[in-house]
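hey m, so remember when u said the tokens were messed up on ur end? i reran from scratch. heres the input so u can diff it against urs
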Amino acid sequence: MLQDILLTPEEVALKQEVRDFVKNEVSSELLRRMDRDEITYPREFVKALGNHNLLGLRFPKAYGGRGMKWSAEIAALEEIGVLGTALGCAFSMPSIVGEALNTYGTKEQKEKFLKPLLKGDLVSAEALTEPRGGSDFFGAATRAELKEGGFTVRGQKRFVVGADGADFFLVYCNTNPEGKPHERVSLILIEKDRPGVEVKCLYKLLGTRGGGTGRLIFKDVKVPASNLIGDINQGAFIFNTMMAPERLTSAGGALGMSRIFDVAVRYADRRKAFGQKIRKFQGVSFKVADAITQIDAAWALVLAAGKSVDAGLPSARRLVSEAKKFATDVAWNVCNLAMQIVGGIGYTNVLPIERAIRDTRLIQIWTGTNEIMNLLIQHEYFQEVLKNPDPGRLPEQDAEEADRADELVYEDGEMWTKGW
């Protein structure tokens, strides 16, 4: 398989380890009960991951991780992603919140929060989105006032996956309302059992059910200054680092969700119409070709993005955005192709395709919409092209009449300055 070519033997072994966990440790009844909203949050699943040392794979062994690279986590994410977005997010959240703790947290914070997080003893959630909007990061209205050695937090966050299941939250708070946009926000750890923390509601979602997604309300919550991640008003700087785990975990999970397409492939090899298997019809076989090509391309791009983050490459920000956008779009596309191949039975809950479609629709929106990814991708690429000190051979010079500079008009009125 493509991924086995691109992964190291150690990473292939990890992938098999996670595959065995998903196959043997996660029951179909758990998925069904979550989809029926009979389970609010899959805490036992998280604990089982911790017991198998599968949480926070990239973090140091001293805190319970395995000291592995992004390519290893992506390989694991693909296997977990088969289970859908709710369990995929439960697996990913220690990687996301753990990134802030591992990179910017104090030793005391790592001992108190990161270690039990990677054991599965504590559950975390990230609280970023607010009722007033999702993508306007700098416009956070949740306030945290620092006085007398502690913060007083008031405000609301919504669409918090794990709101009802988490023990503590990583909350983006406005600590400098009059400051410049990139100097307004701070990251604060808030334990759920602090007075004034309230889970107001759990959303009835199209998909991604059973993940405890809800709204948080902070009513003058008192938080010690020791719960601040990094420095005061450093949230924008930290968020630049956080974008990698937020978006790569979405991309890696999307690879696993794309494997729902195998349900349609097996169906096409058994279902007969007009005297032959439907896989023999070009209308079906070409869909298979389109889907698997997209999936393989997504795999290569996501892995390249992960490696670029590990290597600290300047292009990492662009590649991570590309990976999130492309892999989630591919997951959505191939789930729909799977339903088209299977036909009407795919629209029922006899097969899991309809649930996969409900789940995949969200991943194009969360951790930054794919429209936001487009903005980042084009911005980063313009910078790469225009600031490249050695762009190599410039194809412009190879045109037949490349010397006709008078034909290259870039601004209104420029023709008059050229003497036309």
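this time it looks ok to me. The mean pLDDT is 93. if urs says something different then somethings off w ur setup not the seq
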